[in-house]
Amino acid sequence: MSHGWNAHDIPDQSGRTAVVTGANSGIGLNTARELARRGARVLLACRDETRGREAESRIRKAVTGADVAFVPLDLADLGSVRAFAATHAPARLDLLINNAGVMALPYGTTADGFERQFGVNHLGHFALTGLLLPRLLDTPGARVVTVSSGLHALSDIDMGDLNSERSYRRWIAYGRSKTANLLFVHELARRLTRDGSRLVAAAAHPGYAATNLQAAAARMERRRAAERVFELGNRIVAQPASAGALPTLYAATAPGVRPDSFTGPGLLGWRGAPAPSWRAGWTRDDVTSERLWVASEQLTGVAYPDLAP
User: Fold this and answer.
1) Quick check: helix, strand or coil at residue 64?
2) Which of 43, 182, 188, 226 qualifies as a cystine partner to 283, CB 3.0-4.6 A?
3) Is residue 107 annotated as part of the catalytic site, yes or no?
4) Rounded to whole angstroms, how far apart are CA atoms 62 and 44?
């Protein structure tokens, strides 16, 4: 992997179409902007229309001639996911960036009754990928990149309590949802490889990047002191969101990215240029990844096209 890889190294994306979830701010906004800068048509898949339209405007101002468009997508509502796939899915899809996420929120459920972090971070993206998979399989050189976190190390998945119904600890639930992301990528890559497909499923994480994600829960609960601590950390310790987006952009565009790879910042997984990242062994467990896959199909009602198990 090239030392010091940055946004200037992104290959030309002209003629390619990308869907970026959560593209209204942070990692998603920076990812969408840089793909547009290199010529891609980018669909900004966002829950909030006002913020999505603002992101569209910001990218157009930053990138002359940017081909970007807001499209509504609420990953906390499987009806919205299905509506997106039925109404807004492009005929050609080269890149699906599963970026949107929530972190360490107080206990809550999605529109379909799933624990919110598991439902948004994993199940929403699992359903979206499954519904868009035929388009991806039909597009030469297509990739699916799912954004996980180094904090997946907080916990393995609990197949007996996927919705944290027995107990809920917000950071453990977050870690489990990010483990679920990596298990999903592992199983998808495994099935694609056995099926002889050239579609690449890879994962990335931003390290510690300054985004709205860290302080969202504190802001929601009006915990002002905690909110200030997170904001201070973003100013002093974190790398900018533009740097945090580089591992995702690398996984999405760099030549030679391998299926089931996990790219993160090179300096201890914290900050720096994209590099192979450490991941817990449980995220490559074939038995668990297949069990989670089957459970996810049942929970979402989204049956994937036939891929070799």
Assistant:
1) coil
2) 182
3) no
4) 15
> Catalytic pick from 107, 168, 174, 304?
174
pTM, entire model: 0.91
Q: How far apart are the first and last CA of the chain?
A: 31
What CA–CA distance (Å, rounded) separates 164 from 76?
A: 16
pLDDT band at 239 (very low <50, low <70, confident <90, very high): confident
Q: Are strands 262-267 and 271-276 parallel, antiparallel or unpaired?
A: antiparallel
> Whole-number mean pLDDT of the chain?
90
Dist. CA 275–CA 278, nearest whole Å: 10
Looking at the chain, the whole-number percentage of residues with pLDDT higher than 70 is 88
Taking the C-alpha atoms of residue 117 and residue 175, their distance in angstroms, rounded to an integer, is 9
- 38, 36, 70: which is closest to 53 by C-alpha? 70
